[in-house]
Amino acid sequence: MRIDPKTAVYGIVGYPLAHTQSPAMHNAAFLRTHMNAVYLAFETRDIDGCLQGMRGLGIKGLSITIPHKSTVIPLLDKVDDLALNIGAVNTIVNQEGSLVGYNTDATGALMALTEKIDPAGRNCLLIGAGGAARAIGFALTQQEARLSITNRSVARGELLARALTCPFIPLERVKAVHPEILIHATSVGMYPREEECVVTPAIFQKEMVVMDAIYNPLNTRFLRLAAKQGCTTISGLGMFIYQGAEQFRLWTGLTAPVITMKKAVEQVLGSLP
Ligand code: NAP
Questions:
Q1: Beta-sheet strands, E only, within 4-76
Q2: pLDDT of residue 272
Q3: Where does ligand 1 bind, in terms of residues with CB under 6 Å?
Q4: pTM for this predicted structure
Q5: What is the CATH number of domain 8-103+243-271?
């Protein structure tokens, strides 16, 4: 990798960032497309200072993650309509000094899901009401899926259900719902607490398509239980790669080298203890 005064700088901002795979994914993409660019990890709680740094140093693009996805919105010059509706920005593009916010999680999730099933008109149950769930929920309603939401915190779940004009179902009653598509978007079962699962096996039925937003580990307990019941499963890796591919497109105007990006992340995840 060449570093010189013309090297374009990109990165991820969040706190904590210990397990981020974004640098591996984006640096592999820059190398593959012969771009004079580098992608770094900025672990910080100071989002205001970060954006000043972005303007001052001419950083071309940033990925934004927990806990800054919502708090960054008022600090930007412009925010794309989808990101505004979701209430979360995960991508900033520096357009000649003007900082513009986007949300690529929604597109990423939809691209990963539609590889297996078109959600239009399908009965979907979404578990979670945090940032990932909001993005996935908006993507599904845009596709006219018949969506229901469940979440541990009823107040937060009902808030999202109201925003998406769909029913909220308490977590203890989801066994009675028989969705065609079941999507898990909570942090339960994420590394290092891999043996946890937010639902009981009784929820899974053979003909369901089941997707997890978690990509570390790739094969979560949620997905293992679903596979055991014969469901079609989709790991969170697809969503992660496609949201990154959309970031790459927004930053560079180029089509992302998706296969290279996927291999780079699989290599890192495969080498984790
Ligand atoms: P978040 O905004 O912090 O939301 C966390 C969600 O998890 C909330 O719904 C929360 O419920 C629920 N939750 C947390 N602990 C729980 C527990 N012990 N029991 C039941 N529910 C619990 O996080 P996020 O940004 O939405 O991320 C959620 C997951 O998606 C993470 O694992 C993240 O890595 C993954 N993700 C993946 C991608 C991708 O590209 N594949 C992109 C974004 C996020 P309450 O409302 O009750 O607290």
A1: 8-14, 37-43, 61-64
A2: 64
A3: 66, 105, 108, 128-133, 151-153, 156, 185-188, 190, 198, 213-215, 236, 239-240, 243
A4: 0.96
A5: 3.40.50.10860
